[in-house]
Amino acid sequence: MEGFVKSEIKDGVGTIVFFHPQSNSMPGYQLRALAEEITKLGNDSQAKVIVLKSEGEKAFCAGASFDELISIKDLETGTTFFSGFAGVINAMRKAPKFVLVRVQGKAVGGGVGIACSGDYTFGVKDASVKLSELAVGIGPFVVGPAVERKIGKSAFCELTINATEWRSAMWAKEKGLYAEVFETAAEMDSAIDALAKRLAESNPEAMSMLKKIMWEGSEHWDKLLVERAGMSGKLVLSDFTINAINKFKAK
């Protein structure tokens, strides 16, 4: 079963859904499709607000596809691969409308980056987070700016250095990653629907202006995140990282 990205617009609310059978881990083609869909709804006047979510219950997004990661044999391919999450993050920050993110399960690596790139992110009590990149010989270079912007440098360093440990949803809320945390997905969905409907009736020009103000200082990210992707692209070619990834996959 292949993954997918799909969207719809209803009553001013644009909803984007992504899914991949491997815990919503994202191969390059799917990341590009997600970025394109976000950009498309961002430019569609019928969508006043965007809701981004994934299917499944256990994982919101498990980060990048390890199957594709292990197949990388040169720097150019590696840089292109790691630029996938850069494209999604940049599409989210540049969309001229608010992006609400629904996190119904655990988020790892790039999944944490997506959650942090939401303008207002909802989570359930089981939606713990982890930046596991260092554990497989690389680092959260691409998602780092988005994570640090949302939760601060200290919390970002904590996640990055202790790369094998989960942080709870309440930890994430205390740090500002989640705006709200709910006991159940049903309660979360009710809150998302209510906020999305209110925003769909708000002034689009005011929201667009606010969005620009909220993301001030990130104008250089188009270049920065690709440069960061090159760092990971280089490291993934090393024997250390190749061995670490193979050990992780063998578990």
Write structural notes for this entry.
The protein is an alpha/beta fold. The protein has a single domain (4-200), classed as 2-enoyl-CoA Hydratase, Chain A, domain 1 (Alpha-Beta Complex). The chain is built from eleven helices and nine strands. The chain has helices spanning 28-42, 66-69, 75-94, 110-117, 144-151, 153-161, 169-175, 185-200, 204-214, 221-235, 239-250, and strands at 4-10, 13-19, 49-54, 59-61, 99-103, 106-108, 120-124, 129-130, 180-182. The strands form two sheets. It has a six-stranded mixed beta sheet, sandwiched between helices. α3 runs antiparallel to α10 (221-235). The protein starts with a strand and ends with a helix.
Question: Would you spell out the secondary-structure blueprint of this structure?
Answer:
Layout: E1 4-10, E2 13-19, H1 28-42, E3 49-54, E4 59-61, H2 66-69, H3 75-94, E5 99-103, E6 106-108, H4 110-117, E7 120-124, E8 129-130, H5 144-151, H6 153-161, H7 169-175, E9 180-182, H8 185-200, H9 204-214, H10 221-235, H11 239-250
Parallel strand pairs: 2-3, 3-5, 4-6, 5-7, 6-8, 7-9
Antiparallel strand pairs: 1-2
Helix pairs in contact: 1-3, 3-4, 3-10, 4-5, 5-6
The number of domains is 1
Q: Counting H and I runs of at least 4 residues, what is the number of helices? A: 11
Q: Secondary-structure element order, as H and E?
A: EEHEEHHEEHEEHHHEHHHH
Which stretches are poorly predicted, pLDDT < 50 over at least 5 residues? none
Percent helix: 40-55%
Q: Tell me about the largest β-sheet.
A: 6 strands, mixed
CATH class: Alpha Beta
Count the E strands: 9
Q: What form results from the Cα inertia axes?
A: globular
Arithmetic mean of pLDDT: 95
- Under the CATH scheme, the architecture is Alpha-Beta Complex
Which homologous superfamily in CATH is the superfamily?
2-enoyl-CoA Hydratase, Chain A, domain 1
End-to-end distance, in Å? 23 Å
Strand order of the largest sheet: 1-2-3-5-7-9
Structural classification: alpha/beta
Alpha carbon gyration radius: 17 Å
Strand content: 15-25%
CATH third-tier fold name: 2-enoyl-CoA Hydratase, Chain A, domain 1
